[in-house]
Structure formats: C-alpha cells, structure tokens
Amino acid sequence: MLRKTLTVAAIAVAATTVAGAAQARDQLRIVGSSTVYPFTTAVAEQFGKTGKFKTPVVESTGTGGGMKLFCAGIGPEHPDLTNASRRIKSSEVEMCAKNGVADIVEMKVGYDGIVLANSKKGKVITITREQVYLALAKDIVQGGKLVPNPYTTWNQVDPSLPSTKIEVLGPPPTSGTRDSFAEMVMEGGCKKNAALTGLKLDEKAHAKACMTVREDGAYVEAGENDNLIVQKLDANPNAFGVFGYSFLDQNSDKIQGSLIDGVAPSFETVASGKYPVSRPLFVYAKKAHVGQIPGVKEFLAEYTSEKAWGKSGYLGDKGLIPMVDAERKDWAAKINGLENLKM
Amino acid sequence: MTDTAQMAAASSARPAVQIIAARLKRRHAAERRFRRTGLAAVVVSLGFLAILLFTILGNGLSAFSQTYVRLDVTLDAETLGIGDQRSADALASANYQGVVKEALYKRFPSVQGRVEKRELAGLVSSGADTDLRRLLAADPGAVGTTHTLWLVADDNVDMAMKGYISRKPGADGNRLSDRQLGWLAELEAEGAVVKRFNSILFSSGDSREPEQAGLWGAVVGSIYSLAITLLVSFPLGVATAVYLEEFAPKNRWTHLIEVNINNLAAVPSVVFGLLGLAVFLNFFGMPRSAPLVGGLVLALICLPTIIIAGRAALKAVPPSIREAATGLGASRLQVVTDHVLPLAMPGILTGTILGMAHALGETAPLLMIGMVAFIVDIPASPLDPSAVLPVQVYLWADSPERAFVERTSAAIIVLLVFLAVMNLGAIWLRKKFEHRW
Description:
The complex is a heterodimer of chains A (343) and B (437).
Chain A: H1 2-21, E1 29-32, H2 37-49, E2 57-59, H3 63-70, E3 81-84, H4 90-98, E4 104-119, E5 126-127, H5 129-136, E6 139-142, E7 145-148, H6 154-157, E8 168-170, H7 176-191, H8 194-197, H9 203-211, E9 219-221, H10 226-235, E10 240-244, H11 245-250, E11 255-257, E12 259-260, H12 267-272, E13 278-286, H13 296-303, H14 306-309, H15 314-317, H16 325-336
Parallel strand pairs in A: 1-2, 1-3, 5-12, 8-9, 8-10
Antiparallel strand pairs in A: 3-13, 4-10, 4-11, 4-13, 6-7
Helix pairs in contact in A: 2-13, 5-7
Chain B: H1 2-10, H2 13-60, E1 65-74, H3 77-80, H4 88-92, H5 96-107, H6 114-121, H7 129-138, E2 146-152, H8 155-161, H9 178-189, E3 193-197, H10 200-203, H11 216-247, H12 252-264, H13 269-283, H14 291-315, H15 319-327, H16 332-360, H17 364-368, E4 373-374, H18 389-397, H19 403-433
Antiparallel strand pairs in B: 1-2, 1-3
C-alpha cells in the first residue's frame, strides 16, 4: 500500500516537472509597482473578458524589482511589461540593453496624487509644503544651525494650524509612496525654507536635511497597507495620514484631504497639475515580445483606449487621474506606433 | 514519618509541627499560584483568540451575502451590436453592458443627460454582463427575448445595503449620490433589491471589482500547492526519518546531518523562496507563479518538521516490538515496514499535518516565485499561474475599495475553515491508525 503510494507520487512529480520545463507561454506577464498594480489589473481583467486572450498575470513587485525582472532578458521566461511609479532610470535602460532588451515602448498612463488627509470628524486644514517639512523633518534650522525638531503641536509650526499634537501616519521607507512624499513634499517644502537654504549646506547634507523624517513618534510608520491608515484616521480625528489619492477617493465619506499650497486634492486639480503633489505613472513594454507572446500590442491598445484611460474611463473609477486630452492623444499615437523610448 | 516522630520526641513537639505545617502551607500556596498563573495564561490566550474570531467574523460574515438587483433585460440584437450574427465569437464580444444599461434606462425613463445616465448605470456591477454572456452562450436563440434577471449590484450599492456607507441623502463625500440613493430606495420599495448568498465568492477567480471577486482560484491554487507539497515532502521526510532512526550508523556524520535538519526547521521561510527562485525557476526553467513550484518550495519548508516529528514517533515505538519481530526471523526492512512504521504512523501524520498547516499560511516564499499576483483564470493544472489563499488575503487587504475590507475577512474565514478541515483530517487519521500496547 505504502510502496504503491510512493511510486505513484514519484511518477506524478516527475511527469509534471518535465511538462513544466517544456511549456511555452500564451499569456502576458506583467510585474512592477504596487501603485500602478490596481490600474494594470483592471485593464488586464477587461482584456481577458473579451475572450480572445487569456487574462494577463500581474505581479506586484515594486518598481525597482519589476525593472530588474523586466530587464533580465528576452524570451518567454521574462515578463513582457513592467509597471513603474516613476520614469525608468538611465541605469535601468543600460541594464536592459546589456541583457538584450534594446527596444522598449514607454507608456505614460496618467497621474497619481499623494494626499495628506484626516478624519471628517476633524477640520480641513490648509497647509504649505514648507509647513509640512517643518513639522516632519528630523532636524530643522533654528538660530542658524540644525537642531532636532522642537515642534510638538501644529500651531507651533504656524499659528494658522490647529493646536493639536503633530501625529502623521504614513508608509515606511520601503514604499514608493514614501519616496514620492519625501521628494515632492519634504524636498519641495525645504527649498522654500529660507533658514535652511541660508545655511548653504553641500548637496548631500542638504538632501539629507530635507528628506529625513523625524523618528520621535510624530511620524508613525503605519505599514504599507493604506487601508489600515484610513481605518486608524477614522478612529483618531487628530491624526493625519499620507497615502495615494485613490484611497481618499474611495473613502471620501470618512476622510478629507488637506489643501496643500492652497489647492485641494481632486480629480481636476491633480490632472491639471495644480495640485503640487502628483506623479506620473508608467508602464514599459518589451518590443521584442510583440508577435512572440500573443497580445502585447492588443493589451497596449486596450490600455490606451478612451474607455480605459479616458476622462470617464474605468481606470478613473479606480482612482487613476487621466492626462489631459491632447497629451493622451499624443501618447496613444506614440504607444500604438510602438515608438522606442527616448531618454 | 519516623524522622518526624524522632524529631518530635527529641525536641519540643510544637515548633517542628509548626515548621512543617508552615512549609506545607507555602508549598500548597506555591502550587496554587502556579495553577492560577497557568489558568490565567490559558484565559488570556483564549481571550485573544475570541477577539480575533469575533473581529474576523464581525467583519467578514456580511461578505457571504451579496446584493442583487432585479431588472427586465431585453436581449436586443441591435443594442448587442451583433446584427444577424449568431456565431459564438460574435456572441462572446457582444455589448452586454449596453443591454444592461438600456434595461436601467427603461426602468427609470425620466433619467436624461450623460452624468445622470452614468450614475444610473453605476447601480449595477460592470461585471453583471457575465450572466448574460452565459445565458446567450447556452441558448443563442434567446436574442430578442426579454428576461427578468437578478443582476449583481455595484459594490457601492452593496456596501450601502449592508450599512457600511450612509444611505442618508445629503451626506458629504458619499460614494453614492443622492440621486442614486433615491433610485435604490425606489427599487427596494418594489422588492427589486435583495441580498442573496454570495456564490460568486466561491466560484470565480480574483477581480478588481469587489462584487465580482472570488476565492475559488486561490482555493484551487492552495489545493494544488498542498497536494504537491504532500507528494514531495511526505515520502522524502518519512524515508529520511526511517533511515536516520533505523538504519544509519550513529557517527559524527549522522550527528551533523541531524543538527542541520534541526537548524533548517528554524530558517526563515523567505530564504526557501529565494532558493526556489534560484533552483526551480532559474535553473530548471519551471514556469513562474505555478502551484507546482509553490508546492516544491513549501515542501522544503515542511521537510524538517516532518523529519523531526517522524524521528520522534519512530523513537517512541518500544524496542520490544523490534526485538520480537527480529526474533521471529523478520529482516530489518520487514521490521520497519511491517511493524515499526505502522505503529509510528499516527505521530508521523501529526507532524505532517503541522508542517502542511504551516505551509498553507505561507506567503513570503511565494513572493519570490511570482505567486503574489493578480490572477483571474482558475488554474486547470498545477502548471497554470495561480494564487493561494493567504496571498489572496494579502492582495485584498491592500485594495482601496471599501468592499474588499469585508472580503478580506471572508477570505480569512475560508482559510481558517480550510485549516480546521485539515486538522480534523489529521485527528481522524490518527485515531484510525492508533495502536495501544
């Protein structure tokens, strides 16, 4: 009895292994950023529904991890597309080229805003990026030198802000949202901080002073899960949270976005670029896989169709902020013509 | 007793008795304290378990029902955009959403204007067309007929019906507009909105629309992965345990192997994921995201547990059994396969189930081999891309849509039930094979 089971097991394992090694791919594989993941998956689902192609498999590996997999080479064992919450770096283009991935099609899919939000039980605040920087930087300039951030309540930063304790829940340093927050809010804010620019620090020290977030409990690393931050904000009306615009959009009955530099985060303000904290999102495709793996061109066509990324397309329902009409048309022509990436 | 009697006789009786009585009292008190601490520990852990189950059930039970909206849908060839064609291809790519929208416009004829129409269409799930597609695929002759159908409601409507979002008109920032709430109330008044058992959750794969998202793909993926894990790790683990315990000489080498196996049991699982990536994917060229590779990686994680439990179970078989069998002329192999192994089987099985339960809950190693992914199609074989249950929990927990909150908890409930079924199986097997001597 036991011997029989063992033999059957061994044969089954051997058979599946051999079959696995000999398999070709009839399904698109996409890797990359977790920020672009909700949008690419929505397109993938629609793409699969038409029935002509299998639904693509979308992995959430982070932008950098995705680039590594994408640039590893040509062939069915490598992914066909990668999501990125920032533009591809020249070092990554070089890495791609070294592995034979020479022709890359770049697709800008739209924008994502980063919001500073609190519970609707609290008041909407108007804050500048400089004030956010002053409230959250590890060291700030006082009396001509860098000192550990002394502020404990918002109104110490600026009298117009509420008198509550500074408590901001946000993603940890491993997150792309945190990178963008540091780059666009913290760095953008400290450029306007005359006290810091007056110190004339060298570039490295300046960047460090700008982007280092305080670690004394005012900024709480609440994990990668933005849903959790939303739930915590609902429970604590005095706390603020940092996350992507789509989470504000989906939970607008519970939380409200703060006005940054006088502009409230909304579909229109992010799309037009008026809201200062927004970033473009990208998808990159391997030209060498067009015609080799079924569906690459058709997938790009679905992504760039008006019903997907258009003003009232389904990606908008998922929280993607579309580009303006002319820009969209321009990109669609470039993408569907499979134009090569130009750095 | 005699000591006490002598001591009592030698000195004055009372102090000795008192000393002993006091010591006895202290010993009893110590025992009571120990018992109370133990009991407190049990109560605290039960309390945490209760809180966990309570929150998960409280959040997740509502996901087992889903709101449906009744509509009279006319399968008009023109709206479907298929003309006179009735081929399977034409029917598959027909405009079913258009038909659903027409049905809504017909139900609320007063609705005019683009914005209003868009809001109205938002009451029904954008995936409600799957039922229609199925209906026509089964019976192409149904084109042109009118059917009264229960269509899946949009996730926002579902959330409102379940009380997760406010149904009071005029609330600022509500996901449903006042108009939508009005239509919903009208439909509800005529009994055209009901909550039913959410069969989609148990029959379809993942989806970005919460109301269309199901666990079945992940359940099938978990079953395939665990089947592969069992097929690989059980024979290997038992063979290793039997060899080390019954046949291997006791020397420095076997001792070294033993220490290494014990260490392996403590290696973080993500390391096994990296190993799987390097060996199974990069070296053997197996497909990414496949339960086959997932099962192999999980088998590596289970192996040490099975070997350690197996050796303990083999050790527990009394030597008299081996001696008696040998005395009656059995060879060493016969002693093991006919006597020792059957007696050790309950212990080995317990270890195996523990290892498998551990494997069922793993996500970290699967991240490395591409199983943390959005996969819609239900895997038809262990080679097709697939997610597993804990991965589905992780992916849903990270989705912005409100309706995924309850579905995350529902997925956890299904995972726990899966685990409970596995453990019950283990208990049953153990009872079946148990011998007493």
